[in-house]
Amino acid sequence: MTEMTGRQRLHAALLGQPVDRVPFAINAWQWYYAQKYRGTLPPEFADCQTAIQFHKKLGADVLTRWDGQIKGRAGLGQYVRFPRCKYTVEEFGEPMKMPIITAFNSYQKLNKVRRTLETPVGTLTQVWRFTPESCADFEEQFWVKDWERDYPALKFAVEDRSYDYEMSEYRRDLAEIGDAGIIMIEIPENPVKMLHWLMGPEKATLAMMDHLDECLEMFAVHTQKTLEFIDGVCARTSYDDSPLLMSNDNLDAMLMPPAWFDLVLFDHYHKVSERIHAHGRLFAVHSCGNNWDIRECIRDSGIDMMEG
Q: Cα–chain-centroid distance for residue 249?
């Protein structure tokens, strides 16, 4: 068989077609940024200025969900818009040794990122903190601290959220990847994961137990906005460049058990998979845990691939 390019190899593997070798599609983005931050990149990779360059020099088939993102990173997404609210993002805290990109944020000078959303019915704030010891960042403060106080603003934010289709980063990174691979397009997360981002897993779980009707109402709005985003990105991209649309859900049977899946996620995933398939694309979900107990739920809802 003729040697394939990374892009050809990944396309063939996704469709179950013959390949010249098993794709080597590692996810070493965080490793690269951590070594770069610490000054410990191996000498042969010291000249790599981006994670894409590193993966290409390593000989990997590039399958990225970090780079080229149209909605942007960090749960809500870098390019999220709230037409009826005032939304601000600012860095604060301690100086960074050097700028760094994580899976969720870009830290240019300081080690914390604060997002503030001023709605007509209340103000919500969120804080991320970069930790040098892990070279990763974590939510230090969630948007919703108290359900009774923050629910009106939460509901307003979910209903007001929209996205710019920011294509410049996508086109730039796609050009850098070339025929070495493809970009997975991240779509808005599933409704339960949305609540995890907004409240934290513990409070989100309690909210679904104590305020299910209110949650389901927000979830329906979120699903509709996800479908609209899918239509928008598929109209602006091609199958050849991005055959996979990925929901960054950290799907896990402990936090999203069969009962929650059947009650909330099945309908969402089924609608999302149908819409993605109607555009001729494939649907991936990010896995982050043991999914054995929801394996049949995953299969029946139309998800094509678990990514991790």
A: 7
